[in-house]
Structures are given as C-alpha cells and as structure tokens.
Design goal:
By secondary structure, this protein is α/β, with parallel strands linked by helices. It folds into two domains: about 100 residues, 3-Layer(aba) Sandwich (Rossmann fold); about 150 residues, Chemotaxis protein chec, CATH 3.40.1550.10. Helix content is about 45%, strand content about 30%. It has seven helices and 16 strands. Strands 8, 10, 11, 12, 13, 15 and 16 form a seven-stranded antiparallel beta sheet that branches. A five-stranded parallel beta sheet has the order 2-1-3-6-7, sandwiched between helices. A two-stranded antiparallel ribbon has the order 4-5. Strand 1, helix 1 and strand 2 form a beta-alpha-beta unit. It starts with a strand and ends in an 8-residue tail after the last strand.
Length: about 290
C-alpha cells in the first residue's frame, strides 16, 4: 500500500486537504493535485501515478472527461471518483468510462481506504498472474507431451505476438475465464499433428477429424493443468476453461488477440509447435 502514488483531482482546497490527509496518514504518496482538465493532463503525464481520485464537478469540464484524459495517457491508471453526486445514471456513465470505484462526499476514511485496497489488490493479482503464467503453460505443454508420447521438447524462441500470423495448418484455441479472461492457442502443421497423434494413439489416425479431436484434447489438457497450478498459487485467479475451438486449412490467418499474448516455439520429435498464451487485465467489478 505504501508504494501507491496518487494524484488528487478536485477544485476544492478543502476536499483536497481532507483526501490528502487520509492518504498520507495511511502511507500513500500524493504526487500531485489538479483542478482542471489541462492540469489533469499535465500532472498525470508528469507523475504517472497508479491511482487518481476524481471529483465529478470541475470548472469547464467534468470527471468523466478528465478520466478519459487520464486513460489516454496511461490506460492502466485506476480512477476512483469522489463526488457529492451519486445516482444510477452517473454510476452507469462512470462504469462506461472505466472508472474503477465511486464513493460519495463527505469522504469517509474507511470507505476511501477500502475502495483503494480493492482497486490496488486487483492490479497486484493481475501482476502476479502476468509474472508466472507463461512458464506455467510452457511446463504443462512440455509435461503433457512427455506423458502422452514419452518424448521431450526444446523451446527455441519466445516473443510477444504483435500482429496476425499465418497458421502452420492446425490451430486449437481454448478460452480461459475467471477473474481475468485469456486464451491459449497451440498451432502446428498437419504433418506434425499427424505424427503427434500417431504417437499418442500408438496407431495411425483414421481421419482428419480424429487428428483434430486428439489435438484439441491435448490442448485442453495443457490448459487445464496450467490453470489448476495457477489456481493453487492464488485462489483469487479462479481460472476455468471454455471448450476448445479447432481451425484447420490452407493459408489460415490467425487474428492477434486484443490483449498482450506471449508465444513460445518448441522443437519436438514430430515437428515445430507454437504455444501462444495471454490474459486480459480487464476491470474489477464494483457497485
């Protein structure tokens, strides 16, 4: 909590003083104040806080316009509205503008601190997931191959996926849901899939549908084992799987996810395989 940097946005010196006192008495670092849209842009860009407290009524603007300006600078900055006004329409608009929390004046110290704790804990949980998920999925990918074919793989490259890419021939995608949503994709050529499934089944696969069904189940096992490990690390993740989707064909273009994903390319006895995995930060639920 003590590391959280905060900017206070309010045009009332009294309200700023009250909020500042609560924050500083509880170990937060107030790195700036702003009372107008231009000041918000200047102070937030200069200080890059983790959190902004936002009044709704400001001269020449409002808290929603200022929130949009904050997120234009850095979409990861959390905004908690502190306003004398609170009704269903304002709350609806606040949610639509990605406000992370909303409390009503006069400011209650316990309520403000509780809201900040909820918001910052959400960030911390996502950061924990982001730090470990790739290695966990790589390990279950490797372990699954070893257990099902008694062979090993070697990872030869690792990179963030920045654009659409052409599939090797078969792509299986498993959606992941929970506190954070994500997706796992395994991509491989038809020849690699054929050889892999033959090793898994210890016989020649009878058809393309048998091959794709086996690869889908393997991908589902990799995803399920990884999510189980992650959930044991932190129950707050609450990760669950959606049914796998299989695509195959010539010259398929796979769309980049709308969030950061990491790819690891593996050499196996059956050919090259791609593991791609990522999670969306999203927004914590409030009210």
């Amino acid at each position: 909590m003590s590391a959280v940097r905060v900017v206070i946005v309010d045009d009332s010196p009294f309200s700023i003083a009250v909020i500042r006192n609560i924050l500083e008495e509880n170990g937060f670092e107030v790195v700036g104040e702003a009372g107008s849209l231009e000041e918000v842009k200047e102070v937030v860009a200069a200080t890059q806080p983790a959190l902004v407290t936002m009044d709704m009524t400001l001269p020449g603007t409002d808290g929603l316009e200022c929130t949009r300006a904050v997120h234009a600078i850095n979409p990861n900055i959390k905004v908690i509205v502190i306003s004398s006004m609170m009704d269903d329409e304002i709350l609806k608009q606040a949610k639509e503008n990605h406000v992370s929390g909303y409390i009503q004046k006069p400011v209650d110290a316990d309520e403000l601190l509780g809201e900040i704790q909820r918001v910052t804990a959400f960030n911390e949980i996502f950061q924990e997931l982001e730090e470990v998920y790739l290695e966990v999925f790589k390990e279950t990918f490797k372990d699954g191959l070893n257990r099902m074919t008694k062979t090993l793989l070697t990872y030869k490259s690792e990179h963030e996926l920045h654009e659409d890419f052409e599939s090797r021939g078969i792509a299986v995608i498993v959606g992941i849901i929970g506190k954070f949503s994500g997706r796992l994709m395994i991509d491989l050529s038809k020849d690699t899939a054929h050889a892999l499934v033959a090793a898994m089944m210890k016989k020649e696969p009878a058809s393309t549908s048998e091959i794709t069904a086996a690869i889908a189940e393997y991908t589902n096992i990799v995803a399920g084992n990884a999510c189980s490990i992650l959930n044991k690390k932190n129950k707050a993740f609450g990760l669950r799987l959606a049914p796998p989707s299989v695509m195959h064909g010539e010259r398929m273009l796979i769309s980049q996810a709308a969030f950061k994903t990491m790819s690891a390319t593996a050499d196996t006895n059956f050919g090259e395989m791609l593991l791609n995995i990522g999670f969306r930060r999203g927004e914590d639920k409030w009210m």
